[in-house]
Amino acid sequence: MAFFKHPTAVVESDDIGEETKIWHFAHVRAGAKIGKKCIIGKSAYIDADVEIGNGVKIQNFVSVYKGVRIEDEVLVGPSVTFTNDLYPRAFRWGEDKITSTVVKKGASIGANSTIVCGVTIGDYALVGAGSIVTKDVPPFGLVYGNPAELKGFVCYCGGKLSEIVREENEKIVYKCGCGKEVEIKRYEG
To answer: How far apart are CA 182 and CA 180, in angstroms?
Structure first.
């Protein structure tokens, strides 16, 4: 076995990347795909057919349901819940009701957030703790609240962008305190 599985974890999938660590009481269903060097925290639930990229950190008590795809280097904070049915009913369930959700490379989702299915969280976006995400988040977008609303943009490092270096027709270039410049596509949303 090229990955670590705590003795109390239930791992039914055969598609787990090298150096991944799956901790206490986590449950990974058959058909789930987890990349290399990931951390799956205590009591996390990874449903069937979920796709998780490389270098992803899923913290304790996270629920990732079927229909979710998480790209590389994403951080999912403690107790985050992803949904997969826009109109849930206990008496009316079927695979045809699953609505997909995508979390793009480098994004971070704060503790106790709920991600309503059908959204895309853009590259390097940051979702504040306790947020309810009901619509797409643009790349580098900073959102928080209930429902989550766009409050600005963040750098690759996670710092809030405020210093505008230049503006062009379709993009704004910001400079972060870390020294990096980040191009943000003008966003109407």
So the answer is: 6
Q: Which residues face 160 on adjacent strands? A: 154
What CATH number is attached to the domain comprising 41?
Answer: 2.160.10.10
84 alpha carbon, distance to own chain's centre: 14
Task: Note the pLDDT tens digit of each residue in 72-104.
Answer: 999 999 999 999 999 998 888 788 889 999 999
* Tokens coding 50: 């979920």
Residue 33 included in any domain: yes
Residue 182 lies in a domain: no
Euclidean distance between CA atoms 108 and 93, whole angstroms: 30
Token pair belonging to 138 = 């643009």
pTM: 0.95
Q: Let me know if residue 76 belongs to a domain.
A: yes
